[in-house]
Amino acid sequence: TKYIGVMRHKADIPILAAALECVPPVHVILSGNTEHFNDGRLTPAVHQALNDWVVGQNYQLVHTGRLYLMSLGSVVDAPWVVDADEDDAALWRQLGSAARRVGNWVEAGWSDVEACHAERLVVGGLWKAAHVFAASREDVAHLSPYCRTTSVVPNVVALPRHARMKLRPRLLFVGTLGYGPNRDGLVWFIKYCWPVIHKTNPDAALDVVGGGADMALRRLMGRPGICWHGWQPRLLRFYARSAVSIVPIRLGGGSRIKTLEAAAYGRVIVATKKGATGTRLCAGRDFLLAETPRQFHRAILRALRGAKRFPGAARQAVARHHNPLAWQREILRIADVIAFRKTV
User: pTM, whole model, 2 decimals?
Assistant: First the structure.
């Protein structure tokens, strides 16, 4: 069986290849740069590039890595599936509302336009896909009226070597800082939660790991006790020296790999409800839930004083419900069913 993957990042390709138990013979890599888009659509140059790649090839299935790439699926004469990850239109609407609340009307207007483009893509083209994957039940519920069949395929993480719990008061935030929900959550935490935490725990430190920070966020991360490390290829040393992983996410859908990753490394997690969306982690059993600055302060103090039962429970939940091998088998089953025109 031959598959083609149209992915957003190079890092997505080995993940897809592993899921399909093959090395895709052809794949097109798009980074999301502006030259690939025109008025919310992929440019003719991108379509032509894909045509040049696939000429003379015969594929049984096309896998497109995001909703905004799905127009490329029709270039190949084969059934195609979409890995939606999250509902892009809903995300942009949330970002627009957040920008309006702080008076950033330019960003709010831009987000509204992006939401309209994303919604137009979904309404106008998602029904053509043979199948749609999304990372959470909420996103499947939003997208299912516009497509034939859908499946929830959550994010997965492999269990690393267990990093022994540290007693030092060090917090960790991991995430791409150019992604709206990550930036929003980190800014909110630094402005409204960190001053009280650092005042009552002068020895406390916050490590921020992730690329894509703009100048305003870099200045904000210059506050006492905060250390920004940029993008890092390996995270073990950061998890190893941290006691608590924070996930103060307030926007977005999909599921948070950072939450699953922290659980896999055996850290105590303090997260919002949004921060645990799309995971099978349970508040009070696997992580500490916090929505307000006061709740974050109290939960982090509790974690630093020795909330030792949470890491073990969370790690077990990841092993049971976010196991890469189990979901690899399910994705392969669906791919084979669609490629050979069976019923999912």
Answer: 0.82
